[in-house]
Amino acid sequence: MCVPPLPSLVPFDGFGQPVESGITLPELREALRTELRALTPSPVTHLAWQAYLQLSRVTGNAQYMDLSANYLGNVGQLVRAEKWAQSPTPIRDCETDLDYDGLPECVLASETVFLVVRLDGGRVTAAFWSTPAGVTQGIAPISQFALGLGDPFDWRPNLGAAADPAEIAGALVDSEMPFARYHPKTALDELHLRREDGAVMKTIRLLPDGFEVHYQRQGRIVTRLPVLLEPLLMSQPGWSTAGRLEEHSLRQWKWASARGAIIAVEVEGGQLVVESALDSLEWMTTAEDPNRAYPPGHYLAYPFAIIEILGDNTVKIRITSSD
Fold this sequence. Notes:
Blueprint: H1 25-37, H2 43-55, H3 62-69, H4 75-86, E1 91-96, E2 105-109, E3 113-118, E4 123-131, E5 134-139, E6 182-187, E7 190-195, E8 200-207, E9 210-228, H5 239-242, E10 244-248, E11 252-256, E12 262-276, E13 304-322
Helix pairs in contact: 2-4
């Protein structure tokens, strides 16, 4: 089988410019493979390899190759999460480049919670919890599990993380100016983020079992949380039916996983709207019906629930996971 040569393209950022590091796709793949091979086998290492293989699969589709180059660097944050998971300790760091784009990301962690925050958008691109039952991931961009879900006609590889219109590039992405620069300031268990124009402020505070966000701006607030429904259990038989929805109201959403963990999202000063990849579970064993009105969650990637947060001026969001 003939495999096309790997193009020496440079990934783009959210402003349509080549990433500051100038790293090429072959260089990025090699750097990440080297990091992955050095990891201790574990559930988080499995997630990291899964994402790497999904984003670097061999294909003759040159447009897909261009698209995937913009998301492959996110594997670097999973490598950092695994290193934390081996010895969970507090971290407050906004000077380390995890994704090889030449710009730093922020890592905020305690002994039980690990977060990665991208400063292009002030967005949480990874959240992990360490519990007695083990370490699990609770927040991820859609591209970690599925890429190219948007119409290929609308792919724009020169738009960085916005290249795939179906991508949700982490939690707390702003509905307008989604990749604007944010200025960080750390304090104890908090990360203060101010958008470069001063119009939006986000304060992220660690909790023993999760984190909360104080989101401020003048006017309407619309943002989303791509919440994972126990991704480490997906390979087990009956995964999709073992979990159950515990609560869903305008202010609170709770989901219980097969191992008994409760994932909860609460909102003060706003309301939430939820779509889940499990919303059409009852039809998964039946033939597709083109005349059926499937719920929006039917088209989401597994294992996501997308929680849209709506409010005005100030909203507080709390995301927790407990066994």
